Amino acid sequence: MSDWQNVLTQLREQEHLRSLDWHFAKFMQSLGAEPAIALAAALTSKALSRGDSCLPIDMLCAELESYGVDCESSEWERWLNESSLVGANQPLVFDLQRLYLNRYWQYERLLAERLAVSPVTKGFAPSKVKPILNRLFGEVSAQTDWQRVAAAQACQRQLLVISGGPGTGKTTTVTRLLALIQELAIKTQGHSLEVALVAPTGKAAARLSDSIAQARLALSSSPAEVVEAIPYHTSTIHRLLGVIPGRSQFVHNAHNPLLVDLLVVDEASMIDLSLMTHLFDALSADTKVILLGDRDQLASVEAGSVLADICEFIDAGLSPSLVDYLNRCGAASLIAGSEVLPVVADNLVMLRKSYRFNERSGIGQLARSVNQGNGERAMRYLNDTHFSDIDWRALSEQSYRYMLERCTQACSVYLKMLREGQPLKNVFQAFHQFQLLVALRQGDFGVEGINQRLQRQLFSQQLLDESSGWCSGIPVMVQANDHVQQLYNGDIGIFAKNSDGTLMVAFESAETEDGIRWVLPARLPEHEIAFAMTVHKSQGSEFAEVLMLLPAHGGANPTRELLYTGITRARNHFSLICDEPSLKRACAHRTKRRSGLTQRLAAMT
Fold it and tell me: What percent of the chain has pLDDT over 90?
């Protein structure tokens, strides 16, 4: 195994390994690891930077072979199994033909156990569920109403994962679901349940709060005490768990669980393996959990693809016992699946009907084509003039100038409102009407370069007072969590002058009378200009109009999930600037993160 030391050194010199990966390998060697084991440790660490929670043995060999190194998986299996530094209590774990850092192996095992939960011991009786279900959703129709099924399912399951694309009514469903469960709790237990609503980011939490507040207004058939028992104030997950400054642990954990009867978690696709495990670890065994999200969106920034992994079983069908329960509740006339299903299959439901995008919607048809990997059909829709809500421009100098001009025009609306002294809440509403999304961070096609160009262009048209630096009207996006300031990665603020004429940063807030919270610029955590943002940062947001830019073919590796996420941020209109090969490449390139979560859940029947 002596040659592996040279391989490790060469990969570091050729910058195939990060500094972090290299130092982890050296740490393993300080513990007595052979060079091959140290190399495997470095590549496992590197896998985390790609979003993988583990390194399958075949991927380890494939990666080494791509560097011109001969590799035999059987030899690696033997070396790993024989190493004293690979095991349940060691830095590395080899399990399910995958190599893990110990911490991520623990996360995956613990989370699988919590996700594969059985029905509640005392689910609500179908005879009590049925009349309330009929009142909330109307009589059963011939076509299965999956919103109705989800509500009934939640009455019997300890965990429910509701996945659905844009406009399928996830928050409408969960609001009615809460009305159903709260009314049942009041009638059977004499009191309502303690409910908490959370999302991964501040802006996603704010959007959930607004959606729930609006959906509550439609609950005219529910008693007033039931509606009052449905909260609409939300929190970020970090704030709910209680961050301990300087530590990776939280205030709430298995030894100090949250006092919550029911937890609703929105935008679950954004939650990484580590945070999701910490969240479930902080819940008591009696807490009911509702996860909401779109399985087809981009996965979390950090390692893991928890929602997508769970939803691998969403088309497996439901067990006979659950189907019997749902039919007796009057949820639908369902047919049972296999007798032997993974336990988690009964915890899943897919909302299939989009109430926002019908067959005449270009956005809906385009998103569906991209999601199915059909680039040819996606191009046909973009070229079809019958769809007034989508358009496409080939990438060129002319279309690039159009992008800058369109962004300037859109920004001028909220900037003029700001200069006129209109309420900042109205300024934010105007700001959120339009958003430019990009795939890259750097260069002429990246968020950094475009933001600088836009700032200079707005200055040249006298819409901003400075061509560089901070001035009134510049939007900024927070890049790091700051629990002291209660600002979180992805939050957007706008520089503006307060009533004293002091230049500060205004953030939207549901906790102040005017909906605005002021922060001194010096107290901002890491941040950047946000005229344009990356598609990743747009998750959890929604805009009336979206303009998306993809770089030239070969300039990046856009994926199906990235394009789908960008399209589905738009409510009313979506524009795309790209060359045709980039679009087709994105449709064909599906992201698949490596983990063992799906395999663990499959074994839990």
Answer: 63
